């Protein structure tokens, strides 16, 4: 069953690895959903750091994924592949994609799509999947964060950061964060952070140690932050690494890890199995979507660009001036 999508569609391709200008409009064939998949007529697509890494040639898509960038989108189900039964044509969804979101149509596994949360627009809903899948799977499942614990997220004004602050607060944690300006720190405090640390002016290590240390740290920076994170953890604390903006190699004294019974873990979302992502989707529906319905977790949107202006969206992303998510408007 389908809405009879066209044969071709407008999309944004990566013409070669490089700066945002390599993102160019193109016309490509509309994908066909295979077993267990759905096809989404995209209304909005989220812009995320992995998209920029892929554009730069530093994050190759999985072999079976679309070469087009875009890891999340919202819209209407336009076709249902064989064996797919969770959705019907016309349903409104927001979905985690293996790629291909910068286009008028995108396909994904049916279990990686979720209903639009009550009270949210398609524009807002497009900002949820990549960050919510990432944050929940890392702070709740890997990090084991529970109510009453101290939680530190670096880069609190990013899409991941604004989501993590709200989610951890809704889980009952005490939330601390770092950010790079007074404006960004103020935004983090408004979202529920107890303390926002401007890393240009203060060192997060003594601040967290004075509180007894962080039980869970979510870090996207890496590099010099890795040994400092170890010092900022409470005994039996957990460091969860999800990116390396400053690099992935560093000298680390594991004696402290052993003596204080620390856990260092981490993950990347895109290469994980369909089964793992489906499991995370079920968790979101049970634990996170109610937060959205209650208003304790809302997407923070920095700016919107047209699909044709994807390059401008990437310049905005890489300027580090944004607070929250950047979205592409694909259809009216």
UniProtKB/TrEMBL annotation:
Q: Which UniProt keywords apply?
A: NADP, Oxidoreductase
- Superkingdom is Bacteria
Q: Does the keyword Nucleotide-binding apply?
A: no
InterPro entries, sorted: ADH-like_C, ADH-like_N, ER, GroES-like_sf, NAD(P)-bd_dom_sf, Quinone_OxRdtase_PIG3
Every copy of the Enoyl reductase (ER) domain together lies at: 18-328
What CDD domains does its record include?
p53_inducible_oxidoreductase (cd05276)
State any single GO MF term.
NADPH binding
Question: PANTHER family from the xrefs?
Answer: OS02G0805600 PROTEIN (PTHR48106:SF8), QUINONE OXIDOREDUCTASE PIG3-RELATED (PTHR48106)
Q: Quote the protein name from its UniProt record.
A: Putative NAD(P)H quinone oxidoreductase, PIG3 family
